[in-house]
Amino acid sequence: MYDLERITRIIGDIERYFKDLENMKIKSAASLNKERFYSLSMILFAILNRVIDLGEEIVKAKQLGLPMSYKEIFQLLEKGGVINASLARELAGLASMRNVLAHEYYNVSNETVYNAYKRAGSIAEFVKIVKKLVNSGKNNKA
């Protein structure tokens, strides 16, 4: 069974962070001055934490297993038929980026952060899938 309250909060956070990203109007890696670089890094870190939380909620609700890493969450979702292989790879890659932002931030370049920003569309795709999944589950009393 889905924890609808938690999932709704997580999705709300992700959507709020995406609005923050949109308001930054980032055009290129070169446009990232120090303040924008740190702002973008922190927003991405927050989004990635919440997408991991969202993935964990779906893995738990669908009883797909116990992930041993953030990347494995998305592998389990693929195995369980929730997402396709391409999206699973992309989200697993972004989960790795989360670890870089958390533990190796001193080595992160403007280009690395900007490339992660450009890949954030896969998170929006995952949120859309989860919304559809949860809504169909409500109708079927999952």
Key terms for this structure?
single chain, 142 residues, mainly alpha, Four Helix Bundle (Hemerythrin (Met), subunit A)
How are the SSEs ordered, and which strands pair?
Elements: H1 4-24, H2 34-61, H3 70-79, H4 85-103, H5 110-118, H6 121-139
What report would you give on this structure?
The protein has 142 residues and is mainly α. The chain has one domain: bsu32300-like (Four Helix Bundle (Hemerythrin (Met), subunit A), Up-down Bundle). Helices cover 75% and strands 0% of the residues. Helix 2 packs across helix 3 and helix 2 crosses helix 5. It is globular, with a radius of gyration of 15 Å. The termini are close together. The relative contact order is 0.16.
Which segments are poorly predicted (pLDDT under 50) over 5 or more consecutive residues? none
Number of domains: 1
- What's the story with the biggest beta sheet? none
What is the CATH architecture assignment? Up-down Bundle
- Average predicted local confidence, pLDDT: 93
What do we call the CATH topology? Answer: Four Helix Bundle (Hemerythrin (Met), subunit A)
Shape, principal axes of CA atoms = globular
